[in-house]
């Protein structure tokens, strides 16, 4: 069985990723103008994405499976329709260059299961209005360097 996604048709609105997939290569959803979200099974074995995975796509929301512990460089760069991301991991590192660059509609980052969150300024979490960051009461947020969020409000 192959466990890496190297190509997905650019005409699928909601691709379903089989549970045995462990990695999605770079640029798989690059410039995909049809995609709304990606559907992962509850028992997903996905551990990583390649850089620029969703760059310039029409992605609107995504739920990142629990085995993904970090986000690569420019994963969501130029996702101008992206509004929400939910991370299911118990630990997450957001420290890669331009991971969220030009995601100007990004409104919600949710970490419902996360105990330890590491965020770096290089991720460029940018929003023209406001951004809601949901964490549970026992979460620990570490800033590896200065955290920049160009928003009016952070909750």
Folded structure, characterized:
The chain has 155 residues and is an all-beta fold. The protein is globular. 0% of the residues lie in helices and 27% in strands. The C terminus is likely disordered. The chain contains no helices and 14 strands. The strands form five sheets. Strands 6-7-9-12 form a four-stranded parallel sheet, with no helix packed on it. A three-stranded parallel sheet has the order 1-3-5, with no helix packed on it.
Low-pLDDT segments, ≥5 res: 146-155
**Helical residue percent?**
under 10%
Class based on secondary structure composition and strand pairing:
mainly beta
Q: What is the first-to-last residue Cα distance?
A: 44 Å
Using the CA coordinates, give the radius of gyration.
Answer: 15 Å
What is the string of helix and strand elements? EEEEEEEEEEEEEE
DSSP helical segment count: 0
What fraction strand? 25-35%
How does the overall form come out from the CA principal axes? globular
The main pleated sheet reads as:
4 strands, parallel
How do the strands of the widest beta sheet line up side by side? 6-7-9-12
- Report the oligomer: single chain
